[in-house]
Amino acid sequence: MKFGTKAIHAGIDPDPTTGAIMTPIYQTSTFIQDGVGNHKGYQYSRTQNPTRDILQKNLAALENGKYGACFASGIAAIDCVIKMLKPGDEVVATNDLYGGSYRLFKTIYEQYGIIFHFVDMKNIVEAQRVMSEKTKLIWAETPTNPMINIIDIKGLASLANESNAILCVDNTFATPYLQNPLDLGADIVMHSVTKYLGGHSDVVMGALITSKQEIADEIYRIQNSSGAIAGPMDCFLVLRGIKTLHLRMQRHCENGARIAYFLQAHPKVEKVYWPGLEEHINHHIAKEQMKDFGGMLSFTVKGNDLEDALKLVKQVKVFALAESLGGVESLIGHPATMTHAAIPKDTREKSGVVDSLIRLSIGVEDVEDLIEDLDQALEVL
Question: Before 143, cis peptide (omega within 30)?
């Protein structure tokens, strides 16, 4: 089954009671039992809910996995993975990861004895240098947020196998339309479903997908025990959004390419970070493991002046200055003061998140309007 067909049909059947083609919203906390232990597969919605179950099956199919689990947010999904570890375990993570992930690792789990190593994974030799018999998890984003770096998933998978560690890949920026980490050797795929999968800036959710039964059992145990579940209404919204994922991603990619080349040629732009550019450091890896290059890009303005960056993000008219990404609307953000404000200045600058860095989430509007908007905003600098 091709991707577009899976997005619309995988794991989804008409409602057996009414024949409704759209999955019903089972907005209920509990389910009637005919006798103790005699029920229709559902007892309590924290443990299982029919709307959530259908979405979990759909997401698993899109990632070519067997098991899916949905959570109240992307951070809640990441939290579940870290809860699989024990005090003294070590994690090797990319050094330019999402600021919320960094905050969770450093301010929550470090105090419980889990040790985190943040390394530049553009070259996986850097990850290999810090790995030991205590390494239990490799955490990777690709493309990364916000530097849009590309990490070799197959290479990391080999490294994880050699060390008997779990490899979890945050696939939020690429989506399963562009990249399938499980097919490349990853053990777990994580999504901030809030972003492209939902696609309409109206839901907050996270998800984990795996093909390994023992990992799935742990995920479901923690999901039920910790209770950070996705509600049925949110699951319905994502099921609706996913039906157009392939169509939206095509437009995100087309617009992203046009804007990347426009910015690259602009005299006030210092550098553009987008994996479709041949000079991107791991362009060749992106070509191998992605079907296209996506609608996320970052760029720096000449002079690396904070005030210039802040002036630019306020000058746009079509782009919206906002956190998040992956919706149909184009968004602009300033990572140093927004998404990555939790990361110390010297740490974020080492990974490239300098004061003038601007991140764009390219939407599905007419690209000529987006280019015109960026052009007029750059002119004020």
Answer: yes
Q: Give me the DSSP letters along 8-59.
A: HHTT----TTT--SSPP----SB---SBTTBSSS-SBTTT--HHHHHHHHHH
Q: Are residues 62 and 153 in the same domain?
A: yes
The residues carrying an active-site annotation are 46, 98, 170, 195
pLDDT digits (tens, 9 = 90+) for 284-331: 999 999 999 999 999 999 999 999 999 999 999 999 999 999 999 999
Overall pTM surpassing 0.90 (yes/no)? yes
Residues 265 and 355 grouped into a single domain = yes
Residue that finishes a domain, picked among 242, 264, 299: 242
Structure tokens at 330: 């184009």
Give the containing element (helix H, strand E) for 126: helix 125-130
- For the record, the structure tokens of 49 come out as 């809910």
Say how far apart CA 44 and CA 202 lie, in whole Å: 26
